[in-house]
Amino acid sequence: MRLLVVNPNISTSVTALIEAEARRAASPDTALSFATAAFGVAYIETRFEALVGGYATACAAAEHAGTFDGLVVAAFGDPGLGGLKELFDVPVIGMTEAALASACLLGARFSIIAISHRIQAWYRECVEANGLASRLASIRSLTSPLRDIATVQEDHAERLIALSRQAVDEDGADVIVVAGAPLAGLARTLRNRIPVPVVDGVSSAVRHCESLVALQPGAAMQGSFQRPPSKPNAGMPPALGRLLRAPE
């Protein structure tokens, strides 16, 4: 099976973190390929940045159309996920929906540990959109400025651990969800230092995507996630335009 993993951020250093965790998590016979957004921001923390990141992800995935059996959107908050599920007739999995699904299989209530205070409102909306607001114990986040998006884990490791423990002790979390591609792989480090299960978005997305590809559920021919209707379009990158072009 072939999976394409797209980083909706422009940070190639974060793509490297995503790739390392994805390869650790993937089955031996899964072929992974990776793409980084060609435009946008270093890391997404607002609704508008997510809007840009969703379009950048669609452009990147369109360049690889026909070469993958499943698509992973590797940014917490799942920018553009609903539209991407419409556009491609293969399983499309977001980090958020995958991490939340894993968390719900492991406990009753989960807490999200994030890298930015600004990001909290958007993450809360993402949880609500997944119908899981009643199972959210808390969202806790770093508040100090980030020196480098690629070194968040090293720079703030102890604070991230402290936030996770607070979520367990004070908020009643049964599961910790480590949020954001810059924290990819951190869950493996935290497992021995946090007294509840810890979930990583990248590894969850890869494994859930593998499961859906293996299940061969078929594509949406009707319903709200069927492909967008073909119609004339202008100004789009050629690969994306071809996917939406009306037949001649």
> How many angstroms does the end-to-end distance come to?
33 Å
Mean pLDDT rating: 93
Task: List the uncertain runs.
Answer: none
The H/E string reads EHEHEHEHEHEHHEHEHH
The number of helical runs is: 10
Work out the helicity level.
40-55%
Record the strand order, biggest sheet.
2-1-3-4
- The tally of strands reads 8
Largest sheet: 4 strands, parallel
Please state the overall shape, judged from the principal axes of the Cα atoms.
globular
Helix/strand-derived category reads alpha/beta
Tell me what portion of residues adopts beta-strand conformation.
Answer: 5-15%
Provide the gyration radius in Å.
Answer: 18 Å
Walk me through the structure.
It is a single chain. Strand 5 (110-114), helix 5 (120-129) and strand 6 (136-141) form a beta-alpha-beta unit. This protein is 43% helix and 15% strand. The chain has helices at 12-25, 47-63, 81-87, 95-106, 120-129, 152-155, 157-171, 186-190, 201-215, 238-244; strands spanning 2-7, 31-36, 70-73, 92-94, 110-114, 136-141, 175-178, 198-200. The protein has 10 helices and 8 strands. The protein has a 4-stranded parallel β-sheet with strand order 2-1-3-4, with helices on both faces. It has a 4-stranded parallel β-sheet with strand order 6-5-7-8, with helices on both faces. Helix 1 (12-25) packs across helix 9 and helix 4 crosses helix 9 (201-215). It has 248 residues and is an alpha/beta fold.
Salient structural properties:
globular, Asp/Glu/hydantoin racemase, Asp/Glu/hydantoin_racemase, 4-stranded parallel β-sheet, 10 helices, alpha/beta
